Amino acid sequence: MAEYDYDLFVIGAGSGGVRAARIAANYGAKVAVAEEYRVGGTCVIRGCVPKKLFVYASHFSDDFEDAAGFGWTVGETKFDWKTLVSRKDKEIDRLNGIYIRNLEKAGVEIIDGRATVKDAHTIQIDGHEREITAERILVAVGATPFLPDIPGIEHAITSNEAFHLEELPRRVVVVGGGYIAVEFAGIFNGLGVETMQLYRGPLFMRGFDDDLRDLLSEEMTKKGIDLRMNSDIVSIEKKDGELHLTLNDGDTISTDCVMYATGRVPNTKGLGLEEAGVKLGMAGEVVVDEYSQSSVESIYAVGDVTDRANLTPVAIREGHAFADTVYGGKDVKVDHSIIPTAIFSQPEMGTVGLTEAQAREQYDEVDIYKTAFRALKNTLSDSQERTFMKLIVDARSDKVLGVHIMGSGAGEVIQAIGIAVTMGATKAQFDATIAVHPTAAEELVTMKEKWQAPVIKAAD
Length: 460
Hints:
FAD/NAD(P)-binding domain; globular; single chain; 21 strands; 7-stranded mixed beta sheet; alpha/beta; 460 residues; Enolase-like, domain 1; 3 domains; 23% strand; 5-stranded antiparallel beta sheet
């Protein structure tokens, strides 16, 4: 008789949990996964996928306008929010079904319900009388939106609710300065909503290269988004069908919708982890080692719940590495030092490696190559949107330390460039690569002149 009900029990059927469950089952483990909402997790159900669909929808307003410069006469246009939401929901349903079928095909048992940890090997499912035992438990519950404790916060929404609004608001205030905030500001603005974005710091997109941050601010302002830095809401009042916001500088704003995108926190509250002896960090994240193992030998965690690098592809890689190591007999660790990423702002951004500030702090001498220009498509359309590209190079070894791009297709380009940077490519190897013409991306292999700037280390 088996000592445990399962070899592996996964709590959370998001990207990381699903990948770990499938790979472990393929190695022959008996696996179950519990999910209290829908299979697919934040990315598929209420994150990356529906957000990207909304980004596509919001681009058409510019596309219709640009078409005139190429000889097209576009007739009267009309946008219907309910159609977009309905079509999005159908696509999410389709993806949800694929995730379920893939788990079932791998032999993974799916259990509907909220799971909590009772001890190192025991799980309780809400609504199930019997406790379940497993040799190992993998926590992959992701993160949840953070909302500040201010008067009237109950009138605000997060990105979760933004995907299901009954009506498209006429005016919206987006609060925050990260991926989700700038992406939704662009979405709402592109769909014709009067959009304001507030950020409590001096410049949004903290942690990204300063040139990208500055230029994105300029471009979003040109598109009509009202950006307000060093601004935050201290209270929200609902009156006469409107939301009245009081800001930290005393200013007041009336709007129809307030969406908070002020970060996400690990979704560990009430999970029973601390009671089981699992060490949690200051933000509630599961503290893990390089193999995603927690302080309890039989309990592991992957994805946003560990607060290492909160991106879907990272969660997938962590889940796969866990299964390979524990059930595949391999020694696989995830390298979090070089992570290509895209921000589906408008214009789009792609980045990999070190920022200029980080490079100057870590290396004695840094060479900077950068260029800004109007892409070919924008010449006939008369669009004033600029494309920007930047290479950061270690002057001594010639190794490319970072690449930062803003412009159409930046996310697609940075995926390929990420391979080169991960492999340790040099500037000479970039230069030796024949350009693809005419493309914007050819600038990455044709920039020869260094940008002259004072070399001041961040520590100074």
